[in-house]
Amino acid sequence: MNIQGLKDTTTLSNGVRMPWLGFGVFKVEEGSEVVDAVRTAIMNGYRSIDTAAIYGNEQGVGQGIREGLEAAGLERDKLFVTSKVWNSDLGYEATLAAYEQSLDKLGLGYLDLYLIHWPVEGKYKEAWRALEMLYKQGRVRAIGVSNFHIHHLEELMKDSTIKPMVNQVEYHPRLTQKELHAFCRAHGIQLEAWSPLMQGQLLEQEELQELAAKYNKSVAQIILRWDLQNGVVTIPKSIREHRIIENSAVFDFELTADEMRRIDSLNQDRRVGPDPDNFDF
């Protein structure tokens, strides 16, 4: 894939453009830590910020966005902002209210992408109805889901009028999710990776270290490049400026087809997060 930089985008099924590489804030503390991280990311070229209600840092993310946009001399429409509705708010009215709360905390007039965070049985369809309404009203530019298996997507699409535009899932070389990825491609759903670095568990992997040495890159950069060449939107997280910059320096080299296959072969169907079929929140 010919992805040249942080401003490069994929086009979602509704025509909205979403940056290939974004900045995630899972477990980044509310307050100065998240404000500084988001501002730093924007000032260093990131144009996509991903948060969620359950992260408890939407207010700081909003402040970081405002400070970052001002420092970079950018308007709001140059940034792609994502948040997610939490499990306790998965009902039609509750989801509509949760969206307003997220906007209020972020200090934004709209979101670029709003996701159902987890496929809680018996609840996610009503939440999706609310997302469809928000989308039809022009309150959000794109809607999608997170942590949905194939059967969740099939069940959702049986009754929906709008297909999810994004499915954000755990995705890394130990969990390549090939069948899910193929299903999403076939239905025009953009796959997006959370925990792309497997929370640091892959940094000592010998095959990845060899590739890092070959390209004079870090193991993290090799993994992020693998994500992008697989056509997966990716949102690495860091609170350190040098790491935020390093994570974005993945556009000046390209892995070969054989190297891509070697990384694919590391798959063990291993998760660091819960299995969407077997979780209790």
Describe the fold and architecture.
This protein has 281 residues and is an alpha/beta fold. It has a single domain, classed as TIM Barrel, CATH 3.20.20. The chain contains ten helices and ten strands. It has helices at 32-43, 58-72, 92-106, 124-136, 150-159, 178-186, 206-215, 219-229, 241-248, 257-264; strands spanning 9-11, 17-19, 23-24, 48-50, 80-85, 113-116, 143-146, 166-170, 190-194, 233-234. Strands 3-4-5-6-7-8-9-10 form an eight-stranded parallel β-sheet. The chain has a two-stranded antiparallel sheet with strand order 1-2. Strand 4 (48-50), helix 2 and strand 5 (80-85) form a beta-alpha-beta unit. Helix 3 (92-106) crosses helix 4. The N and C termini lie far apart (37 Å).
Offer a concise description of the structure.
The protein is α/β, with parallel strands linked by helices.
Give the C-alpha Rg: 18 Å
Query: How many runs of DSSP E, i.e. beta strands?
Result: 10
CATH class: Alpha Beta
Number of domains: 1
CATH superfamily: NADP-dependent oxidoreductase domain
Main sheet properties: 8 strands, parallel
Structural class: alpha/beta
Q: What is the CATH fold-level name?
A: TIM Barrel
Protein name: Aldo/keto reductase
Pfam family, one: Aldo_ket_red
Domain NADP-dependent oxidoreductase: 23-267
Keywords: NADP, Oxidoreductase
